[in-house]
TrEMBL record:
Coiled coil: none
Membrane topology: Multi-pass membrane protein
Annotated protein name in UniProt: Cytochrome b561 domain-containing protein
Subcellular location: Membrane
């Protein structure tokens, strides 16, 4: 019998009630072995890509944007409040997106009891959430220091909605799967939705980060700070592409069938 993911269970359960017309019985299945990527290889690639995204993000703010407030260098900045802004992309990418990705991968790559994995999963998600809150606070501090309006952009709206949904998902999941904990039947029924909604919120976080990079580059090029084809612009575009690749690997690992 083929092994399925939570998302597959959701799909198969719903298609059992309303069979597909196309003649396909029970919806799509992951092909057997030969066309299915190896989970271990996928996890390795995903972790490496996360590391690369982290290194590139640090490299961008340190090499091109003058650094972080506590490790500032270079003379390109007239005002130290610019350094406060740099905390924002670092916390959002390294502290939030990468931590959340690793938390999602815990059920695939970490061995141990189910409650051990759950404890790691929920703890890393909580740390990621607070990193995101501090990251948004850094952007707010920067805006206030410069007298710029807050929460006017699509990026900021997406960011607020994403982090709020993430916080709600965490609270509900904690109550259902940890304390006080729902009945086994409810936990099983909610699980496909938990994974599905979790991955949607994860995609929203990736989109928010992409719009953030785009917005920052637009400010820098429109104000003539850097050229459209400058090394920095190409570097930031590359971070955007790498982040999407990373997200794709994490999502694929989460929806692949697993051994236990
Ligand atoms: C999931 C990741 C992210 C979230 C949730 C997020 C959220 C936010 C929020 C809520 C604001 C508004 C702050 C205010 O108005 O005072 C903001 C501002 C900003 N963020 Fe992000 N951000 C993320 C990632 C990034 C990244 C990777 C960059 C890349 C540089 C970035 C660039 C900016 C810029 C330029 C602003 C100021 C302009 C504006 O308000 O849109 N963000 N972000
Ligand atoms: C907002 C935060 C959260 C997000 C985005 C999230 C996301 C996910 C995702 C995508 C999966 C599927 C992973 C897979 O099938 O490999 C998953 C599984 C799971 N999550 Fe979460 N989660 C969050 C918070 C929590 C919390 C607080 C708990 C409480 C213990 C929890 C408990 C679980 C459990 C029990 C599973 C299923 C593991 C299994 O199938 O063996 N999650 N989560």
């Amino acid at each position: 019998m083929p092994m399925r993911t939570n998302l597959h269970r959701l799909h198969v359960e719903s298609s059992a009630k309303a069979p597909l017309k196309s003649g396909s019985k029970g919806g799509r299945r992951w092909p057997q072995q030969s066309w299915r990527p190896s989970l271990n290889a996928l996890l390795l690639w995903a972790h490496c890509m996360g590391l690369i995204c982290a290194v590139f993000t640090f490299a961008w703010v340190i090499r091109f944007r003058g650094g972080l407030p506590f490790i500032a260098h270079g003379a390109i900045l007239a005002d130290r409040s610019d350094l406060i802004f740099n905390v924002h992309p670092v916390l959002m990418v390294v502290g939030y997106i990468i931590l959340v990705s690793e938390a999602i991968l815990v059920f695939r790559g970490v061995s141990g009891t189910k409650s051990y994995k759950k404890a790691i999963h929920l703890t890393i998600q909580a740390v990621g959430f607070w990193m995101a809150v501090f990251g948004i606070w850094a952007a707010l501090l920067f805006h206030n220091a410069k007298g710029i309006d807050n929460f006017y952009s699509l990026h900021s709206w997406l960011g607020i909605v994403t982090v709020s949904l993430f916080g709600l998902q965490w609270i509900f999941s904690y109550a259902i799967y940890w304390y006080p904990g729902a009945s086994g039947k409810t936990r099983a029924a909610v699980l496909p939705w938990h994974a599905f909604i979790g991955l949607i919120i994860y995609c929203m976080a990736l989109i928010t980060a992409e719009t953030g990079f785009l917005e920052k580059l637009t400010f820098l090029t429109v104000n003539g700070v850097i050229g459209k084809f400058s090394l920095e612009a190409m570097f930031v575009n590359s971070i955007g592409l790498l982040l999407i690749l990373y997200g794709g690997l994490v999502i694929l690992a989460a929806v692949l069938p697993r051994a236990s």
